[in-house]
Design a protein that fits this description.
Layout (H helix, E strand, L loop, with lengths): L1 H28 L8 H17 L9 E7 L8 E5 L3 E2 L5 E5 L6 H5 L8 E10 L2 E9 L9 H8 L15 H7 L7 E5 L5 H15 L1 H7 L1 E5 L2 H7 L2 H4 L6 E4 H5 L8 H8 L2 H11 L9 E5 L2 E5 L1 H11 L5 H22 L6 H8 L2 H10 L5 H10 L1 H8 L5 H7 L15 H14 L7 E4 L7 H9 L5 E6 L13 H8 L5 E5 L1 E2 L4 H7 L3 H4 L7 E2 L7 E5 L7 H9 L5 E5 L4 H7 L6 E2 L10 E5 L8 E7 L1 H6 L4 H9 L2 E9 L9
Parallel strand pairs: 2-4, 7-13, 7-14, 8-9, 8-12, 12-13, 15-16, 17-22, 18-20, 18-21, 19-20, 21-22
Antiparallel strand pairs: 1-2, 1-5, 3-4, 5-6, 10-11
Helix pairs in contact: 1-2, 5-6, 6-7, 11-20, 12-18, 12-20, 13-14, 14-15, 17-18, 17-20, 20-21, 21-22
The chain binds adenosine-5'-triphosphate.
């Protein structure tokens, strides 16, 4: 009887909850005092605190969401429960197994054609923290029916920030989530296919599976803007992972945003700039014209100019700039020491250090291998036409050089105003000067929007690790948007990364997706039309009126009668007018830094990427298209944010591609 089954499962939930509480109490009772010294005590206490926090029981999230009956014969118990984390009783018997453990894989992957030792899969439905339903999938060769619980989950209204999908990860998503740490995966996926969700779950999976290795150098998530970061910010903590750096490209490279012409920005974003910057830096190392004269008491030691030249030549191009400079000092000092020894002295390391720091050596260094900052080099490159020409050689055409040169350079590198594209150039120079530290894994979302130079900057941050690259060629809106994932992976320094595709949409209703897909032949002709899991009949309305902005309040009031969040997406310039038109309807305006917690939000088209709302009202598509060069792609992004309904309001003619 289903009621009896539910009773039994609720009993297991109660036992598991009690066990979790007791695990937490045990963790709380542990003391850091046992650690020898104060520093170790602090570290141990930090670890214990983390453990206690991780063992918190969030009453409104399901402790387990699946159960597997396994065929007899293996080492495993006959029944396992799959949940967010391991829970065991006082005898260390597993009551719930973490979804990331190898045995849990069958929960996501088992199918009638490959049961993976599973005889029955049970999914649980929850309301709040209450277990209210279950669904059985026997693996006896019969085909499985569509899961009702999955359907309910993806139909649930989307109030507030993004949720985890741990209970309903689909087999093709699970393949990506569980790819080996050593493998870089690149996912092309239409809007709403779960790329962001998959990237976040992959981070959680890797942290669980390679806890110690990643504890040292960490995992970093890179998203398109801060509004997006705040939208996704609660997913990883809900999965028990609190120590993940979630940031934007600007967060990594510095918040430089001095406006500049898109053509100039595109040249600066091009991979050819890497060679230009490398030359620009090394042009500062010049041929020594003089030797070194080192005096100690009455003794004079001389290094001939050709000897200095040889040392410089042997270092140039074999080592990064800053360590090269330090090594040059040491080599010069060593050569002086050899002379001392020849004269029968016996100088030690301290003498070598003293010579390396001495005035004559420093003088040589300052002329032939000067101390430099990235800002100094880039300032010179962008303000000195001759220097740029020498560094650019044939990599940049004369017109391109003209375009990147500042019209009115600032007085010095200190007062220079840097653009977002400059930030990536500064970072490239910084790495040529001194090696950038690498993370163990980097997840890059909306990667189609990054320039080659930005990708190189992120590539440096996973140089000794791997990456998960997520994006959609059709949603590329920057002047340098990627045309091929192979190229993206090359710029990232992960050329052997595997490109895979997610094709089934979980967000956008079919009717809306088909409408948006009319733009695809123009924005990404090579991509197949996306498919949606959700029929959503009646989800689309397109209305023309003499004043589109004036029609917004009615559309919003209508949406307010239904459940869920409402996003009014408009061309960036129209935000104030549309917000004013909403009058006394309570609403917020999404800004680059705002979290946007109100139920009704006016969303600038430029910030809509990656976000979703139950009801979306799009105002004047023609304005959104006209606002930027890749305006059609922006419109494609905007039209694919809706979970339940999309209403398009317009006064001007709709873009021809939509008709
Ligand atoms: N397996 C799943 N089970 C339940 N919901 C899912 C699943 N996969 C994705 N979703 C939901 O579908 C929606 C879209 O997911 P997500 O934002 O990750 O897609 P995306 O591919 O990054 O979209 P976009 O390209 O538009 O940014 C989210 O609400 C997500 O929770």
């Amino acid at each position: 009887m289903p009621e009896n089954v539910l009773e039994a499962e609720r009993a297991h939930l109660a036992v598991s909850r009690a066990a979790l509480t007791s695990m937490r109490e045990h963790a709380q009772s542990l003391s850091a005092d046992a650690a020898g010294d104060w520093v170790s005590q602090q570290i141990l206490q930090g670890l214990l605190d983390q453990r206690v926090a991780a063992l918190a029981d969030h009453r409104d999230t399901p402790l387990f969401f699946g159960r597997l009956e396994l065929s007899a014969g293996g080492d495993l118990p006959g029944t396992i429960y799959v949940g967010r984390r391991h829970v065991h009783d006082d005898d260390r018997r597993a009551l719930v197994i973490d979804w990331r453990a190898p045995v849990s894989r069958a929960f996501y992957q088992a199918s009638p054609s490959d049961p993976m030792g599973v005889t029955l899969r049970r999914r649980f439905g929850y309301q709040g923290g209450e277990l209210t339903a279950y669904e059985d999938e026997p693996m006896d060769g019969r085909e499985l029916a569509q899961s009702r619980l999955l359907a309910e989950e993806i139909e649930r209204p989307r109030n507030g920030p993004m949720r985890d999908i741990v209970a309903t990860i689909q087999p093709d998503q699970d393949e990506i989530v569980r790819a080996d740490l050593g493998v870089t995966v690149c996912v092309q996926g239409a809007p709403g296919t779960g790329k962001t969700a998959v990237g976040l779950h992959r981070a959680a999976y890797l942290l669980f599976t390679h806890r110690e290795r990643l504890a040292r150098n960490g995992v970093m998530i890179v998203g398109p803007n801060r509004a997006f970061l705040s939208y996704i910010s609660s997913v990883l903590p809900a999965l028990g992972e609190v120590k993940v750096d979630q940031t934007t490209v600007a967060g990594i490279l510095g918040d430089h945003s001095f406006p500049e012409d898109p053509v100039t920005a595109a040249i600066k974003g091009d991979a050819r700039m890497a060679a230009v910057l490398e030359r620009a830096l090394w042009l500062h190392v010049t041929k020594p014209e003089e030797g070194v004269l080192y005096t100690k008491g009455i003794n004079r030691y001389r290094l001939a100019d050709h000897a200095v030249r040889e040392i410089v030549a042997s270092l140039r191009g074999t080592i990064r700039y800053a360590p090269g400079r330090a090594t040059l000092a040491q080599r010069l000092a060593h050569a002086v020491l050899v002379q001392m020894e020849r004269r029968g002295e016996s100088p030690d390391d301290r003498v070598q250090d003293a010579v390396a720091r001495s005035k004559p050596v420093k003088q040589i260094l300052d002329t032939v291998w000067p101390k430099l900052t990235p800002e100094q080099v880039l300032f010179r490159l962008l303000s000195d036409a001759d220097f740029l020409a020498r560094a650019a050689r044939t990599d940049l055409s004369p017109e391109e050089q003209e375009a990147v040169l500042w019209r009115k350079p600032a007085k010095s590198h200190r007062s220079a105003k840097w653009s977002a594209a400059d930030a990536a150039l500064l970072d490239e120079l910084a790495d040529l000067i001194e090696r950038t530290a690498s993370h163990g894994h980097v997840v890059v979302d909306e990667a189609q929007d990054l320039s080659a130079m930005q990708l190189r900057a992120l590539g440096r941050r996973c140089r000794t690790g791997s990456a998960t690259v997520l994006g959609d060629i059709a949603q590329g809106t920057t002047p340098w948007s990627a045309q091929s994932w192979k190229t993206v992976l090359e710029h990232l320094g992960q050329p052997s990364g595997e490109v895979t595709e997610l094709t089934l949409g979980f967000r956008v209703p079919r009717e809306v997706l088909d409408y948006a897909a009319r733009l695809l032949p123009s924005v990404a002709p090579d991509l197949a039309a996306p498919r949606s899991l959700r029929p959503g009949a009646g989800s689309l309305s397109v209305r023309r009126s003499p004043d589109a902005a004036a029609a917004v309040p009615d559309a919003v009031r209508q949406a307010l009668q239904r459940e869920g969040s409402i996003g009014v997406i408009v061309a960036d310039d129209s935000v104030p007018a549309v917000s004013a038109a909403l009058g006394d309807i309570p609403h917020g305006v999404l800004g680059a830094d705002s979290t946007g917690e109100e139920r009704v939000l006016v969303v600038p088209a430029g910030l809509a990427k990656g976000l979703e709302y139950d009801h979306v009202v799009v105002v004047e598509p023609a304005d959104i298209v006209a606002a930027e060069k890749r305006g059609l792609a922006r419109l494609y992004v905007v039209l694919t944010r809706a979970v339940t309904s999309l209403s398009v309001l317009h006064t001007a003619e709709l873009p021809a591609e939509l008709l």
